[in-house]
């Protein structure tokens, strides 16, 4: 009788562990939580004032964004972004900038104040 009870409890424990580790529903819930957190963190500027500066940007200007550029160099070259998001863990800071123009969308990611990734998507 004791062996059957031990087997039953072990089976229940393994079943609960498998249910808790499943990715179907928990992944959707995690994505919703990340989107809500990102919406709280994002700060946007008034795009009407920035449109004249960022309207001048095209694919060639976006190609000038190089890995390792500083944040000051980037903002001097492209002007104020339409979207800015700042996150970080301990001393590691990630800043996400986005400029949207008639030509396309430029996204730039900075790690600790230096450009780590940039992408231009034409419309």
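-> sequence recovered:
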């Amino acid at each position: 009788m004791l062996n059957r009870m031990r087997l039953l409890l072990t089976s229940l424990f393994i079943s609960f562990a498998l249910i808790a580790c499943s990715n179907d529903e928990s992944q959707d819930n995690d994505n919703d939580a990340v989107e809500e957190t990102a919406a709280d963190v994002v700060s946007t500027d008034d795009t009407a004032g920035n449109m004249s500066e960022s309207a001048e940007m095209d694919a060639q200007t976006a190609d000038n964004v190089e890995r390792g550029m500083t944040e000051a160099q980037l903002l001097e070259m492209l002007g104020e972004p339409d979207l800015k998001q700042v996150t970080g863990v301990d001393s590691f800071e990630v800043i996400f900038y986005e400029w949207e123009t008639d030509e396309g969308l430029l996204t730039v990611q900075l790690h600790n104040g230096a450009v780590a990734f940039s992408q231009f998507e034409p419309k």
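The domain at 59-122 is CATH 3.30.1450.10 (Beta-lactamase Inhibitory Protein; Chain:B, domain 1).
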